[in-house]
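We close this part of the discussion by returning to an individual protein. Part of our work consisted of pairing the sequence of a single chain with a tokenised description of its backbone. The amino acid sequence and the backbone structure tokens for this protein are reproduced below.
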Amino acid sequence: MRRLTLLLALAQASAGETTAQQEFLKRFVAAAIERTHHVVRYDPAYVKIPYPGGDVPAGTGVCSDEVIRAYRSVGVDLQKEVHEDMKRNFSAYPQKWKWLSWRTDSNIDHRRVPNLMVFFSRMGKSLAITRRAEDYAPGDLVTWDLGGNVPHIGIVVDQKSGPGGRYMLVHNIGQGPKMEDVLFDWKITGHYRYFGPGPV
């Protein structure tokens, strides 16, 4: 029954998506939920990591690292994809943010929410920002301003907050990856869907 419900939800949410894209979203949602079983200490420190396929230590990370790790579980390396797009189109990315970045840096660029927002809008789909919960589907990415221009990001998953409730989101706001009903807790600044590079 749950599988049928998930398939119906994905079919409704992904109207216009190919069968392969719908399958990708299903695997991505499962990867996001799996992340909630990991213990992760919130740590925004700059860390030098290998390229491509690099990651900060598994027991540490921030909100963007949960998105990065979920995508990597389904074969998409955001470190590589963001870095390559930034090298080709650096002027499209934020250059006046608090880190005052004047060049690409494969250690950190993909871990910054404002960069991910630009990347997902360029390489994926930028979707409407609304106050209607039904407009946010499993596999979508949502960004927020927590206040004071502090960005945050999470993944919409197929679990609901209760009968007739909203889809919940997987995110890390300081206590490690959690699945919570937080869609409208903060000001939404972005709503995206991304299937990875090339045809899916």
